[in-house]
Design goal:
387 residues, alpha/beta, Rossmann fold, Rna Polymerase Sigma Factor, Chain: A, 3 domains, 7-stranded parallel β-sheet, 12 strands, 16% strand
Length: 387
């Protein structure tokens, strides 16, 4: 039995991880659960899984009355609740499924306590890849970090099947998001409601907008660079609307290994939770006759400039990827709040990188400083966009 602490338990990934845990009570025990502000949903999870600790990271003590029937566990509040769950509550694994830069200190706290990290937070690797990977070298008991994103889980699984043979290229697949068939003129007038209508996956609002802009793929390119020690030219993105091939790895002899399956996040989540076992997930199985065909096309750099920005950030090095992520977070949030046009998201990110130039990212303090600087500059740029 493995004891798992879940950071972001009321989000899509966290909730599905709990579905896996409920399906296999003989394999998993829940040690801690945290949510940002969805208190009622967290109360229900606490009632069902009886963790040792629970936390609401977006609230202060006294903001909400804790029901009598869930007072049996240790309740924490504010950002420190995340660190407590990652570091202080005994467990084998920490599933980091929170969104945003808050995932970086949680990952480092978990590794500092010797826990295996199941990573479903893009920003930790994008902003602090060098620092995170230095803390996540494989140990005598196996890997200390397992990716949960469907694309990186697919690559991870393909490389595990490669028996140590070096890869030549990583082929990241992308659904294309809600706007994959939109013209440039349509994109200029795209609405939030349209952006949130993802054709294949059910995800949170921020990630779904990132999928529509393809900034999610930009972040995944940067993640892949760190997770798999890849050079930028070894990573290629393909639009694959069916979301059946989750990603592929090409080898020097021309052979390509791919991981396929129905688009359901329970599969990569369960793979990480039970590694190296494969367990039942209750996810639908791929029905290839009904799928009929799988298609692949290149990314249009004009309609989706985010992908090109990721390669440029990798070429710049230093804190460029961190600043790309920070500027995108600010622009994504402003778009969701109704204060920015969809195509202006990319403009804000590109202009932020151009204005600041590069900054160092050798320490967590330098990463935080670069993140803060990019957010300040992105906000200034967005005020100009509104004039």
């Amino acid at each position: 039995m493995r004891r798992i602490n879940i950071l972001g338990s009321t989000g899509s990934i966290g909730a599905q991880a709990l579905q896996i845990a409920a399906l296999h009570p003989e394999l998993f025990q829940i040690g801690a659960l945290t949510a940002h502000s969805q208190a009622e949903a967290l109360f229900e999870q606490v009632r069902k899984f009886h963790p040792q600790m629970a936390g609401l990271t977006g609230m202060k003590a006294g903001d909400i009355e804790i029901p009598e029937d869930v007072k049996f566990c240790d309740w924490r509040f504010g950002p420190d609740a995340l660190l407590c769950a990652a570091r202080d509550v005994p467990c084998d694994d920490v599933l980091v499924s929170v969104v945003g830069m808050i995932g970086l200190p949680a990952v480092m706290a978990a590794r500092g306590a010797g826990r295996r990290v199941l990573l479903a937070n893009k920003e930790a690797l994008v902003a602090g890849g060098q620092i995170v990977m230095a803390a996540c070298a494989d140990g005598p008991d196996g890997p200390t970090l397992i990716p949960v994103d469907s694309e990186h889980s697919a690559i991870y699984q393909c490389l595990r099947a490669a028996q140590g043979n070096p890869y030549e290229k990583i082929l990241l697949t992308a659904s294309g998001g809600a706007f994959r068939d939109f013209t440039l003129d349509q994109l200029k007038n795209a609405t939030l409601a349209q952006a949130l209508t993802h054709p294949n996956w059910s995800m949170g609002a921020k990630i779904t907008v990132d999928s529509a802009s393809m900034f999610n793929k930009a972040l995944e390119i940067i993640e892949a660079r760190w997770l798999f020690d890849a050079r930028p030219e070894q990573i290629e993105v393909l639009i694959h609307p069916q979301s059946i091939v989750h990603s592929m790895v090409q080898f020097r002899d021309g052979a390509v290994l791919a991981q396929l399956g129905a688009p359901d996040m329970r599969v990569p989540i369960a793979y990480a939770m039970a590694y190296p076992q494969r367990i039942e997930t209750a996810a639908p199985k791929a029905d290839f006759p009904s799928i009929g065909q799988c298609t692949f096309t290149a990314v249009d750099p004009v309609r989706f400039p985010a992908v090109g920005m990721a390669y440029e950030a990798l070429r710049m090095g230093g804190a460029a990827a961190c600043m790309l992520n920070a500027a995108n977070e600010e622009a994504n949030a402003r778009f969701r709040a109704g204060g920015l046009g969809f195509m202006q998201i990319g403009h804000v990110v590109e202009e932020t990188l151009a204005r600041i130039g590069n900054l160092p990212a050798h320490t967590i303090e330098e990463v935080y400083a670069a993140d803060a600087a990019a957010r300040r500059e992105a906000r200034r740029i967005m005020e100009t966009c509104q004039e």
